[in-house]
Specification:
Helices cover about 40% and strands about 10% of the residues. By secondary structure, it is an alpha+beta fold. Among the domains are: about 60 residues; about 200 residues, no CATH class. The strands form six sheets. It has a three-stranded antiparallel beta sheet with strand order 5-12-11, with no helix packed on it. Strands 1-2 form a two-stranded antiparallel ribbon. A two-stranded antiparallel ribbon has the order 3-4. A hairpin with a 6-residue loop joins strand 1 and strand 2. Helix 8 crosses helix 14 and helix 13 packs across helix 14. The relative contact order is 0.12.
Length: about 450
Amino acid sequence: MSVAPSDEELNSAAIILRSAHPSLGIGKLLAQLKLDNPEWSISEKRFKRFLPRPSSSSSEKGQGDGEVNGGGSGSGSSNVTEVNQKDGGLIAQTGIDTFLDIKQIAPKVKVKMFKDGKGKGLVVREKLQMGEMIWQEDPWIATNDISLTQYLTSREMCSQCLTLFPQPNPPLSVPCTFCGEAQFCNRLCYSKAVKGSSGHHDLLCPGQNKEVKSILKLIQSKQNRDLQAVIKIIAKWRGEREWGSSSARKEIEDRIWNSMARVNQRTKEEERREWPFIAKDRLEEWRLTHLLILNVLNPSPSDDNYKPFQRLLQSKKSRLIPLTKEEEERWFSFESFLELLGLVGLNQESSGGLYALHSHLNHSCDPNVQVRNLPKGWTPPTTLPAELPPPMTAQNRGTNKLTIIAKKTIHPGDELLVSYVDQRLDYSERRERLREQYGFYCHCTRCKKEQVEYSKSKA
């Protein structure tokens, strides 16, 4: 039976199609829309009303400068918009990830661009039942909790998936070829760490780039996991730029600068009440950290690491092309460092790093999905509804692969929601943490109810 989509559904679908296929005409886009949504009845005239204009550089995916819904940010992509949080919150740059095949990863889910400045989110295509696995996802950028460093450096844990070994350096595990500080479950994990998630990127291997030790020491001393993610993002881009494919490089650029929610870290910190008292020290700390990153991943000719770094780059490709001024500014300027630091703070999942699809999930203090790190041997339930997996223990800890599970029945059209903070916190604590860490106040049903109770208690 054919149904007419709502204006909001059609608007979201049109934005996604234009982002994914910037050079196609309206006829082909309408045909693709009907393939994606066979139950929809839609005329070309109505579809055209919601279809964004093609960008001026539509031959290159995700690199136009058009607008989304008339409210685009003008920051270099036709799928980028600004998220203006309520109550005077921070304004985040965000957009649709045109390189993700969401139907392949999560068949019952689709991305939606919401109105009123909310930005993107994930909604359900088909009914989900309690205990149902919605999707699983490996980290796009793998990071580890700083407390795990002792296990990683002693080869008691896989540097890629964070599986705890029964003994250090177990049989069949694979060490890093160049350094004595990384061990992997097998060659697949080793390959993922080097080429996929940047869990142990060649440019950040102490055996290949000795200056890395200085930044690793800083991360450990400051217990700064966000900094760990920042240098892995830059290393991932630099590696693809020097040794990889242009398509992989463009995917990184699009995901970082056009898709994942991003707010400059200095802008975030300025929201804090104590900023006037800590600003000088914080800025000095950031500038010193930025200089360390430059020495590791883009040393100048006057730096001691310049020649060793050039030899490392030339070990895989003899003819190097110098960075352009635009690339220097985009990836190695101080302001870009603050942008990346802010991006990581908004998107990093505490148990594993940055995840491309997971980063589309919005917050609620009463979430309808669980995000879990389950053991390698876990299998989805065969009958539904089902109980949620039990909590992990020290003897049965999970890996950094995310499993997204429905906490209750979720109906088509409902948004998938997770909690960004500990749900056990009371109303005022959740409110303060969300505002400080993510730049917004929550207005979910639970918060509205507890706000009334909180106001009464203060009266």
